[in-house]
């Protein structure tokens, strides 16, 4: 008998958002122990795990700390935990994960030694090499170092976010002194000593420690250790009353530099000296709690492993993935994107498909005298974006260019301010988004005056207009000339640029609220049809699943017997496999060479399937706090093709992790089956495709993997 609906409020049926994120980062870190990944890629995954954790502390942990500090005792909507309880559980889990990360780092060091690469210290170098390193220090490091003594006339210095610092204990006569030495971020973190048959790597902070006495003449250096702080970046942008949002963003960026310290990392010193009093001193000066202090058995900030890989590649050592060139059909070099789009909708799955046709979509519009207007949303773009350059040229040529530049894209604010100013100078009309909301949608509209009259063309996608991340993230998009969809996009941009109530769209679902309402409506329809035909089926692929209303509706569908297959890369607050609640739901996470970033939502509807692509995850912030678009795939051939891709991911048994009913992720076992690595299959198939179609992928999936 199905469990009663009111019992779905049981906290045991949910996972905490923050702990689920930590589980995701653990899966990233575990890629460093996957033999399917070459050694350099394993090092990169350790680095990515560190950068992920930095952002997590700057934003998520900082927000919880603020709540606790202000006495806000609001419970999270799933586990019913207070901010204090969440912070305690985060520390407990993260301590284990950081320990695992550093254990893997030691393992990778051993693997590098097999390739004649060693991490070393100056004291361990032979005399000749030590002299070379000393000269390197004097020319490349010492001139940039500024030590800060601390006393009545020299207060405790400002410590920049993410910067390495040396805590130095000095002695003169019978007195002790404290100094802090920042390691400038613009210095190379890793220095190499190359020999005929060996490469030795040194950390810049270790080199500085070896020569500290050069900076403190007349004092004895008793000991030193490296530390690093993370600062709160979860500051609120004050939009209310801001006459110029551009200036408000610039002020916000300045304030963020001085955010409160939220984490202190200390490298365990090699010396026998006790540093407990020094830690207590830093703890007091930084006003930080004991639970947010991490003493690590290895170098701080493992993002430096990116630098290690670059150095080793420059020596000719190559232990990376084989290069992959995205598929670029010859018809895009022979025909205009617009001519092709007039015949059929064009579908792209990056990075397996080239991003070049998306660039062509803008560049060809700029060079066409019939182009009247170009409208585009920009959320995260590259520093040398060819798309923005094309928009600048369009504006200078007199084409009406309207660009929504989302200034509130976290950690990309400065880059977006730069582009907003450049585009405005070129004559483009710039929108800064919608008050109180982030505009996260990915949409472009081109309007042309053709012989038959005005014609509109649109590109809609799940990922950013960024040609660099399009090589690293999996994202889907469509270029279409469909009259109703392009009318919807036209109305959408006019809604953003003018004064209007939310339009009545033919096909689009636009957040805030409408995407969630549409998905709930589709789930309810699936439940209803399942009761009639017994074949209910939902497949959804996304980055994160956190929205309580969506969770409840998915549980309701499972209780009704609908089969639900979820592919959730990151946070998942749903627990599958609970009897009477979610036994018809499976959840898997794919962490691989490319960051899974596409959002796809499929509802079977007794064969009359609805399939949506979207910029939105099933997260509350996407559903009610952002401007997002979910758009249907109308072409049945494309619909079947995208479903083939989803099926392929559901059969991945190389990179997939399965979420169990007890909230743990387990790596998928082969169990005697042939290995299926979805991303590898897609790369191989794209390399084999020569005629500009992808029918082979459909046939491959249909005959080899599809369940009947």
TrEMBL record:
Domain Polyphosphate kinase middle: 129-307
This protein's UniProt keywords: ATP-binding, Kinase, Magnesium, Metal-binding, Nucleotide-binding, Phosphoprotein, Transferase
PTMs per UniProt: An intermediate of this reaction is the autophosphorylated ppk in which a phosphate is covalently linked to a histidine residue through a N-P bond.
InterPro entries, per database record: PP_kinase, PP_kinase_C_1, PP_kinase_middle, PP_kinase_middle_dom_sf, PPK_C_dom2, PPK_N_dom, PPK_N_dom_sf
Binding site for ATP: 52, 473, 569, 597
Record GO cellular component, one term: polyphosphate kinase complex
Catalytic activity: [phosphate](n) + ATP = [phosphate](n+1) + ADP
Entry cofactors: Mg(2+)
Group of enzyme by EC: transferase
Gene Ontology BP annotations: polyphosphate biosynthetic process
Active-site residues annotated for this sequence: 440 (phosphohistidine intermediate)
Keyword Secreted (UniProt): no
EC id: 2.7.4.1
Polyphosphate kinase N-terminal domain location: 14-119
Binding locations of Mg(2+): 380, 410
Keyword match Metal-binding: yes
Domain Polyphosphate kinase C-terminal: 337-501, 508-679
CDD domains reported in the protein's UniProt record: PLDc_PaPPK1_C2_like
GO molecular function per UniProt: ATP binding; metal ion binding; polyphosphate kinase activity
Family per record: Belongs to the polyphosphate kinase 1 (PPK1) family.
Function: Catalyzes the reversible transfer of the terminal phosphate of ATP to form a long-chain polyphosphate (polyP).
Protein name: Polyphosphate kinase
């Amino acid at each position: 008998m199905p469990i009663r609906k009111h019992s779905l409020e049981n906290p045991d049926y949910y996972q905490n958002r923050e702990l689920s994120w930590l589980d995701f980062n653990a899966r990233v870190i575990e890629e460093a122990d996957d033999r399917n990944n070459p050694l350099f890629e394993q090092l990169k995954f350790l680095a990515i795990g560190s950068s992920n954790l930095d952002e997590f502390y700057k934003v998520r942990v900082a927000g919880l700390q603020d709540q606790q500090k202000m006495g806000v005792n609001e419970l999270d909507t799933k586990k019913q935990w207070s901010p204090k309880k969440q912070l305690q559980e985060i520390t407990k889990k993260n301590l284990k994960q950081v320990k695992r990360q550093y254990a893997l780092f030691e393992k990778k060091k051993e693997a590098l030694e097999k390739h004649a690469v060693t991490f070393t210290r100056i004291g361990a170098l032979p005399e000749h090499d030590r002299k070379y390193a000393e000269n390197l220090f004097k020319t490349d490091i010492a001139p940039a170092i500024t030590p800060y003594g601390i006393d009545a006339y020299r207060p405790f210095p400002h410590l920049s976010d993410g910067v390495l610092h040396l805590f130095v204990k000095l002695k003169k006569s019978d007195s002790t002194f404290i100094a802090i030495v920042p390691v400038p971020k613009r210095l190379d973190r890793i220095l190499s000593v190359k020999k005929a048959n060996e490469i030795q790597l040194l950390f810049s902070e270790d080199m500085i420690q070896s020569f500290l006495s050069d900076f403190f003449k007349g004092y004895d250096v008793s000991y030193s250790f490296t530390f690093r702080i993370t600062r709160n970046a979860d500051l609120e942008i004050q939009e209310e009353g801001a006459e110029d949002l551009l200036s408000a963003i610039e002020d916000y960026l300045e304030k963020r530099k001085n955010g409160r310290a939220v984490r202190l990392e200390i490298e365990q010193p090699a010396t026998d000296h006790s540093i407990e009093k020094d830690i207590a001193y830093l703890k007091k000066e930084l006003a930080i709690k004991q639970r947010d202090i991490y003493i690590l058995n290895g170098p701080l900030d493992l993002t430096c492993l990116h630098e290690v890989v670059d150095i080793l590649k420059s020596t000719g050592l190559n232990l990376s993935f084989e290069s992959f060139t995205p598929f670029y059909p010859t018809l895009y070099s022979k025909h205009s994107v617009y001519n092709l789009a007039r015949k059929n909708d064009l579908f792209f799955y990056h990075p397996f498909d080239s991003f070049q046709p998306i660039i062509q979509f803008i560049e060809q519009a700029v060079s066409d005298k019939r182009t009247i207007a170009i409208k585009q949303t920009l959320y995260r773009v590259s520093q040398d974006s060819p798309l923005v350059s094309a928009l600048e040229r369009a504006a200078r040529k007199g084409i009406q260019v309207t660009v929504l530049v989302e200034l509130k894209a976290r950690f990309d604010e400065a880059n977006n301010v730069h582009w907003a100013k450049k585009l405005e100078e070129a004559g483009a009309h710039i929108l800064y988004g919608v008050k109180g909301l982030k505009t996260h949608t990915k949409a472009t509209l081109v309007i042309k005056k053709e012989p038959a009259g005005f014609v509109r063309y649109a590109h809609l996608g799940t990922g950013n207009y960024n040609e660099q991340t399009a090589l690293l993230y999996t994202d889907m998009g469509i270029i279409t000339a469909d009259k109703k969809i392009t009318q919807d996009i036209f109305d959408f941009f006019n809604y953003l640029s003018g004064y209007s109530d939310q339009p009545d769209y033919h096909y689009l679902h636009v957040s805030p609220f409408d995407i969630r309402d549409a998905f709930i409506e589709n789930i309810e329809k699936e439940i209803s049809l399942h009761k009639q035909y017994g074949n209910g089926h939902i497949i959804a692929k996304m980055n994160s699943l956190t929205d309580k209303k969506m969770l409840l509706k998915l549980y309701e569908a499972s209780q009704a017997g609908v089969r639900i297959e979820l592919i959730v890369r990151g946070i998942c607050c749903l627990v599958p496999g609970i009897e009477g609640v979610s036994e018809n739901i499976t959840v898997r996470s794919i962490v691989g060479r490319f960051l899974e970033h596409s959002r796809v939502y499929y509802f079977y509807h007794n064969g009359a399937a609805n399939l949506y692509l979207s910029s939105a995850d099933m997260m509350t912030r996407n559903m009610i706090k952002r401007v997002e678009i979910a758009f249907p795939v109308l072409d049945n051939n494309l619909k079947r093709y995208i479903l083939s891709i989803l099926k392929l991911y559901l059969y991945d048994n190389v990179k997939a992790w399965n979420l169990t009913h007890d909230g743990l992720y387990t790596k998928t076992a082969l169990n005697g089956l042939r290995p299926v690595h979805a991303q590898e299959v897609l790369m191989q198939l794209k390399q084999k495709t020569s005629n500009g179609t992808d029918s082979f992928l459909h046939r491959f999936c249909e005959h080899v993997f599809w369940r009947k």
